[in-house]
Amino acid sequence: EICLQNDVLVISDEIHCDLVFNGAKFTAFATISDEFAQNSVICTAPSKTFNLAGLKTSNIIIPNPALRAPFAKRLEAAGIHGLNCFGAVAVQAAYNHGEEWLEAMLAYVEDNYHFMVSYLAEHLPQVRVIPLEGTYLAWCDFRALGLFPAERKRLIMEKANVYLDEGEMFGPEGEGFERFNLACPRSLLAEAVERIAAVMK
């Protein structure tokens, strides 16, 4: 409503929309109301869900024809148009036949999340895991350890030999945080948190 009142276009990045944990629900921005849909650009892709990055199969959904026409014209002028054949077949196969795999993957990632929460609560309780309803990216708050960013980075990367996404790379709001990728074997995640806990004690 604020955007509508101030003539601000909403660009909604919904690339993680399929990655929702059991009990949670994703609401697409354009489904809230037709008025919102007409003032939005929705970005999705199967790349996060089915690990199809590199196949150039992202989607940009623009419900409003007045917004869609100039966007399509710009794409055409830049020589960007159509799907590659391999990408189209891969997306079709993923969405038509990948549901069982997706459900199993989501259950595994959610179990990884619960494992990490439990492990850190027991072995490094100063680090708080931000509650997660979906996706495979977990944010952890390291601020209670009282470390400067450079010292935290040195301990995690150089002493524990674990590479994470430092919160600072996402702007000032990310200071003191680290981002973990949970889409990995449990043994790898366990080794990472064990190493970090060992150097932080």
Structural class, from secondary structure content?
Answer: alpha+beta
Q: Which CATH C-level class of the largest domain is it?
A: Alpha Beta
Q: Spell the H/E element sequence.
A: HEHEHEHHHEEHEEH
CATH fold-level name of the largest domain: Aspartate Aminotransferase, domain 1
| CATH-assigned homologous superfamily of the largest domain | Aspartate Aminotransferase, domain 1
The low-confidence parts are none
Separation of termini?
A: 48 Å
As a percent range, the share of helical residues equals: 40-55%
How are the strands of the biggest sheet laid out side by side?
4-5-7-6
User: Biggest sheet, in brief?
Assistant: 4 strands, antiparallel
Strand content: 5-15%
**Silhouette:** globular
Task: Provide a count of the helices.
Answer: 8
Number of domains: 2
**Cα radius of gyration in angstroms:** 20 Å
Number of strands: 7
Please tell me about this protein's structure.
The structure is a single chain. The protein has 201 residues and is an alpha+beta fold. It has eight helices and seven strands, in the order H-E-H-E-H-E-H-H-H-E-E-H-E-E-H. The strands form two sheets. A four-stranded antiparallel sheet has the order 4-5-7-6, covered by helices on one side. The chain folds into two domains: 2-97, Type I PLP-dependent aspartate aminotransferase-like (Major domain) (Aspartate Aminotransferase, domain 2, 3-Layer(aba) Sandwich), CATH 3.40.640.10; 100-200, Aspartate Aminotransferase, domain 1 (Alpha-Beta Complex), CATH 3.90.1150. The chain is globular, with a radius of gyration of 20 Å. The mean pLDDT is 95.
